[in-house]
């Protein structure tokens, strides 16, 4: 695929122009641009500019409020809700994280529910933000029904990503962010765009038969990673990110969504735990004895390592040229 | 394999006689017997009488205190520790669960750390106990290093089971309890005993080569379920059940264990969340709309369903005859 090199500053200017000209106020624009920049910076292409046409579609359809002002509330000392005010999730998360971190650092554990928001990005920014405050972070979201539970052949679950971050003071956190689907839908879409085949076990076609054609999987359904066990994790995500926080299950999101190309309304479940309060002194050094052994094993790569390495580069980022043209055309 | 039918009462009498004659006091005996009975009742054979020789070995070696008196403490309103006093975990869990449930029901979320205990059983009894109190439960434990992280060929991780339970008032909870290994070690041991082959992908031999021979996997190492993603979940379990609660990683448990055939010392991480406080009214009915759709899909079976069905039977349970003889020989 032809690509065009853009500096992070150029990506920032482009994304800013797109969001402003499509009705976002300054606070929402800043939060969204940061999300896009951080994804491109880290090489997480399926969550960067690739998502911008979807964001814009939902602004233009009127589904998402580009001027949303999320409100943070405490239900208890350890239960926090953020009403997203019908906007995209990044500003809601940005406002909520300090309150969640404060609660977890005081009480030892806290949960934050993001409600009435539209999530279309990676989850690692929020779990990393907790880890940077020396907290353990766990986050998950539903989506729309694009995946069958293991054993079946009917769409019910979202790709249902889960992100976990462990703080490593003085080091990058240990962090992962992974679809509980065998492959993230964005990556399946990129494979379809680029004419690539999928590995076996990623999905089924619309008739429920196994296929390696990404276009057929998009029309059909994804499979969970790891069979019945991965399916159980994906179901836990539905329960935590929907039923536990009074937001929409993936199947409900489909029923209420406009299908404008952007994200469906949904919630996000975020858990924060203080190892200072739970384990007491010495937890970080103790954890490092484990990471040392983990990293010493041939063939083992820590998740997030590639992103953290990409992050350090100041070089221009390659952007799919066709995508770039589509994003530029969204200005004005 | 030849089996002998025993009523649950006979299993109870047998287990009681074994624990009492090997130095357990009444409270510990009751807690252990309940664990064994419930496993046999539910058809979870790898956690029932199958574990008794291991329990006894650790009592006889003096590693585990059969008269332990676990102590429950609050570090904060939402952080509870139970010092297991060097005994088996069931009594520590029995004493801690009411405090954990009370904390979660008041604050909305709480974590309990079981410390200085020897865990050798399933995790669903504790998560189900939370679900019966209308709480969401999540529990995990490390073990000894019997599994390699994905991509490697060196033992570092335990089988690292995780259990999740969702309360369904008026119904059995949705509950699963699964090794993050491709197969639980107890099941591999039973396959070796019964001369069965494993499915591909369960483990590697001592030289790091794939094998389907359970005896070779026991000498070698297990693999995580679901490749890199399952491995990431297994690593999260190490961090939560060891570093986060100041207890032993699997590799540390190996260094300190007597290898007497019983469990190594370790901790258990248990999280409880109140959907009443987090979601508010209507959460249970909302969740049922999801379970209805899940159960309606052909080929999908809810985890825990088989156990809950087995539980209803008052019929005698088939016990491996060779195992029965070995357990009977432990009395006196």
Question: What is the count of β-strands of chain A?
Answer: 12
* H-E string of chain A: EHHHEEHEHEEEHEEHEHHEHHHEH
CATH class of the domain at 69-181 and 224-317 in chain A: Alpha Beta
Low-confidence spans of chain A: none
Structural class of chain A: alpha+beta
Oligomer: homodimer
Spatial extent as radius of gyration of chain A: 19 Å
CATH architecture of the domain at 69-181 and 224-317 in chain A: 2-Layer Sandwich
**What name does the CATH topology of the domain at 69-181 and 224-317 in chain A carry?**
Ribosomal Protein S8, Chain: A, domain 1
Shape call of chain A: globular
Largest interface, chains and sizes: A-B, 69 and 69 residues
Task: Please provide a brief summary of the model.
The structure is a homodimer of 332-residue chains. The first copy, chain A, has 332 residues and is of the alpha+beta class.
Task: Give structural notes.
Chain A has helices at residues 8-21, 26-42, 52-60, 89-107, 124-131, 185-193, 214-219, 227-241, 250-256, 275-278, 283-295, 305-312, 321-328; strands spanning 3-6, 71-74, 79-88, 109-118, 136-141, 162-166, 174-178, 203-204, 210-211, 221-222, 265-273, 317-320. Helix content of chain A is 41%, strand content 19%. The longest helix of chain A is centred in the first third of the chain and has 19 residues, at 89-107. In chain A, the strands form three sheets. A seven-stranded mixed sheet of chain A has the order 2-3-4-11-5-6-7, sandwiched between helices. In chain A, strands 9-8-10 form a three-stranded antiparallel sheet. Chain A starts with a strand and ends with a helix. With 332 residues, the first copy, chain A, is of the alpha+beta class. Chain A has a domain at 69-181 and 224-317: Malate/L-lactate/L-sulpholactate dehydrogenase, NADPH binding domain (Ribosomal Protein S8, Chain: A, domain 1, 2-Layer Sandwich). Chain A is built from 13 helices and twelve strands. In chain A, β6 (162-166) and β7 (174-178) form a beta hairpin. At the A-B interface, β4, β7, α8, α10 and α11 of A face β4, β7, α8, α10 and α11 of B.
């Amino acid at each position: 695929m032809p690509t065009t090199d853009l500096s992070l500053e150029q990506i920032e200017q482009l994304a800013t122009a797109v969001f402003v000209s499509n009705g976002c106020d300054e606070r929402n624009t800043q939060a969204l641009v940061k999300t896009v920049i951080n994804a491109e910076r880290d090489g997480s292409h399926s969550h960067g500019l690739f998502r911008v046409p979807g964001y814009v579609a939902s602004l233009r359809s009127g589904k998402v409020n580009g001027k949303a002002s999320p409100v943070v509330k405490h239900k208890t000392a350890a239960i926090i809700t953020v009403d997203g005010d019908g906007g995209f999730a990044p500003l809601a998360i940005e406002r909520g994280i300090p309150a969640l971190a404060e609660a977890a650092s005081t009480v030892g554990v806290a949960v934050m529910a993001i409600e009435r928001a539209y999530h279309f990005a990676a989850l690692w920014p929020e779990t990393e933000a907790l880890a940077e405050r020396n907290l353990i972070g766990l986050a998950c979201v539903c989506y729309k029904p694009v995946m069958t539970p293991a054993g079946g052949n009917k769409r019910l679950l979202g790709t249902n990503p889960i992100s976990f971050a462990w703080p490593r003071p003085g080091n990058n956190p240990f962090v992962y962010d992974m679809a509980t689907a065998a492959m993230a839908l964005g990556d399946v879409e990129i494979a379809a765009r680029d004419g690539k085949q999928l590995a076996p076990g990623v999905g089924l076609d619309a008739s429920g038969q196994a296929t390696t054609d990404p276009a057929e999987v998009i029309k059909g359904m994804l499979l969970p990673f790891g069979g019945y066990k991965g399916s159980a994790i994906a179901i836990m995500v539905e329960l935590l990110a929907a039923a536990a926080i009074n937001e929409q299950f993936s199947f409900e999101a489909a029923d209420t969504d406009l299908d404008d190309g952007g994200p469906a309304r949904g919630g996000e479940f975020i858990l924060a735990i203080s190892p200072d309060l739970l384990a007491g002194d010495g937890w970080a050094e103790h954890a490092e004895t484990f990471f040392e052994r983990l990293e010493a094993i041939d063939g083992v790569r820590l998740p997030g390592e590639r992103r953290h390495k990409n992050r350090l580069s100041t070089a221009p980022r390659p952007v799919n040229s066709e995508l770039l043209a589509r994003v530029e055309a969204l200005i004005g």
